[in-house]
Amino acid sequence: MPITCIAIDDDPHSLESLVSYIENSPDLALIKTFADPLQALSEISVSTSVDIIFMDIEMPTISGIELASLLRQKTRHLIFTTAHTRYAIDAFKVEADAYLLKPYSILNFIKTIGNLYPNGKKDTNPLTVFEDHYFYIPMQDESGSLIKIDLDELISIENSHQEIEFITINSNYRSAKLDFIKIMKMLKKHPAFLQISENIIIAKQHIKSVLGNQVLLSGEISYPIANSHLALFNSFLESNLLKDKNLPNT
Hints:
Order of helices and strands: EHEHEHEHEHEEEEEHEEEEEH
Largest sheet: 5 strands, parallel
Mean pLDDT: 83
CATH architecture of the largest domain: 3-Layer(aba) Sandwich
Strand order of the largest sheet: 2-1-3-4-5
Helix content: 25-40%
Number of domains: 2
C-alpha cells in the first residue's frame, strides 16, 4: 500500500515544489493539499488519518505549531517544512518526526522519507528515529540548544516530577520538554534497552551486576527493580545466563 500524505503550506511556490517531490516518489500518494491552515484544520479533523502530514510553520491565522498540536493524532508522522531553524524546540513539543529546512532538495526530501520508511513500506520499524543510533533532546534552560544523545553511551533514562534525566557515560542531561511516554514506547521495543520500573529505562550493555532486586550500572549508578517489572527482568537474565549443557537441570 502507498504511504498517504497531506501537504499544508500557504506559500504557492513551496507547496508546488513539495507536491512535485511527493508525486515523483513512487511510494508516496498525495491525498490532498491545503494553502489555508484553517481549511486544513476543518477538513483533516473529520477525515481519515494519513501516514504523513507535511506542514509549514509560519502561516497566517494559525501557525503550523498550533495546527500540529490540533492535528497530531490524525497522522502517523509529522514533518515540518520551514525556512527557520528557531522552531526546532517547538517541533519537539508537538512530536514532529522530521524537520525539512527550506529550500530543501529532492535528495534531502528522499533521505527524510527514507529515515521514516527505510523499506518504502508502512510496516517499518517504529524505531526509525534511532536508525543512526542517536537522537537529540532540547535542554531545560532557555538557550534553546539541542544535545545529541548517543545510544551506545546512554546508561539510563529516568522520569521524575516535571523533568526527564538522561544519564550517559560522560554527562547527565535534563529536559522538561520531552514526551517520556513516547520515548519509553520506542526504547521498550529497542533490543538494547529494558524497563525496570514505571519511570526508569536502562541500557542492557551497561548492567554490571545484580544483587537481589538492585541493579548496578556503569558509573556506579544503582536502581531498584520494581516488583511490577521483576518478571520481565528475570526473564532477561534467564535468557542471558551462561549455562553448562553437561550439568543437569535443577
